[in-house]
Amino acid sequence: STPKSSSRPHPIPVDASSRDSESAMAHTFESKLRADRSEVWTAVSTVEGINREVAPFLRMTDPTDGAPFDTEPWKTSSPVLWQLLFGIIPIDRHRVDLVPFPDEGGFRESSSSWWHRVWWHERTLLDDPSGCIVRDVVEVEARLRWLRPIVRRSVDSMMRRRQRRLQQRFS
Hints:
The chain is an alpha+beta fold and 171 residues long. It is 25% helix and 38% strand.
């Protein structure tokens, strides 16, 4: 489908209906940024870059010592990252399998954690005449049924925040 464009300052839910099965939840967001794809890739292709998007509420540890997602530590292993609330309180643990797309086109990440039986995130960077479009698709399955409303709300809030932070950075 063709990316939606908007002058709105907020991330755009592309598919507001989301697939909503009994166990899995899907969220899709995209934003237009005023930067070329290469510049955006540099900003989003490390744990440090992701931490800039989720700060100050979360911080993830980085067992790769800052390695970009298209380098060996990510290609040859499944690093374990801790999510820390406010940067200090461990609240989740992810073993991450990450596959970068060719030509700085984004990445596909899959993991499971204490909160999520399934966490699947695809971030696509698309060229646009005015810069770059960042599209995030997240599919998640809560580990426990009673966590579904909490997980749904937190994933939606986090991904909207991440997109807003990118828009602020590249406006």
